[in-house]
Specification:
By secondary structure, the protein is an alpha/beta fold. It contains 3 helices and 11 strands, in the order E-H-H-E-E-E-E-E-E-E-E-E-H-E. The longest helix has 14 residues. It starts with a strand and ends in a 15-residue tail after the last strand.
Length: about 230
């Protein structure tokens, strides 16, 4: 494993080194030390790298990730894993607002809690939160799965499209057009796979599923107050 001391090298040099690696590289294992809450660490990676970050990170860590597996051994600021395409971003601690925002693919694991708007406008990413999430999580979530092993704050899934939400704890309130749905065998299978990939020991049968009532897809004067 090659060490990159961010305090010594600076953010631009660290990100340039990682972004310069291709899928054919033999230099796959990297350790970033002294992150000191810096923003935009390990953004835009496009190779199957293993990147370990020892400490807390600032905004947008792991954003636009493709193929790399990034582990944050600390807490993460706003927008961790935003707009991910593939790969894995794992936060060993807690995450701030808008984790996984607009993500198209890959897996984001937050072993602690996530703040408000987790999974906002998600477009295919899978997100597993070991703890609880704040208000307006999965707002306008279009595709993918959001697994919440703790509780969900108010207005969960407001204006949701076709994303699937799984919650083991309580839900303070559901957002507009979000309803509880039947948990069918295929959902239990999907949930079991996500929990296993996230390394979280939980019984899928203890979760409830939520999704779109599909009343806002086309304008209907009877639902005008909900738009």
């Amino acid at each position: 494993m090659t060490e990159l001391d961010l305090d010594e090298l600076g953010l631009r040099a660290v990100n340039s080194k990682l972004n310069g690696l291709t899928a054919e590289t033999n230099e796959r294992h990297w350790l970033i030390t002294n992150p000191m809450g810096t923003h935009a660490i390990a953004c835009g990676l496009q190779a199957p790298l293993d990147v370990q970050i020892k400490g807390h990170v600032g905004f947008y860590c792991g954003g636009m990730n493709k193929e790399a597996e990034i582990t944050v051994h600390g807490h993460a600021g706003v927008g961790v894993g935003e707009n991910m395409m593939s790969g894995l971003v794992r936060v060993k601690g807690n995450a701030s607002q808008s984790a996984g925002a607009t993500g198209h693919g890959g897996l984001l694991v937050i072993e602690g809690d996530a703040s408000s708007r987790c999974g906002i406008s998600m477009k295919g990413i899978d997100i597993v939160v070991g703890g609880s999430v704040g208000h307006m999580s999965a707002f306008m979530a279009q595709l993918g799965n959001l697994v919440i092993c703790g509780d969900a704050g108010e207005a969960l899934g407001d204006s949701i499209y076709e994303a699937k939400l799984f919650v083991r704890g309580s839900v303070e309130s559901l957002g507009t057009d979000c309803i509880e749905k039947e948990m069918r065998p295929e959902h239990l299978e999907t949930l079991a796979d996500l929990l296993a990939r996230a390394g979280i020991d939980a019984d899928p049968a203890t979760f409830r599923r939520y999704g779109s009532a599909r009343k806002l897809y086309n304008f209907n004067v009877d639902h005008a107050d909900s738009y």
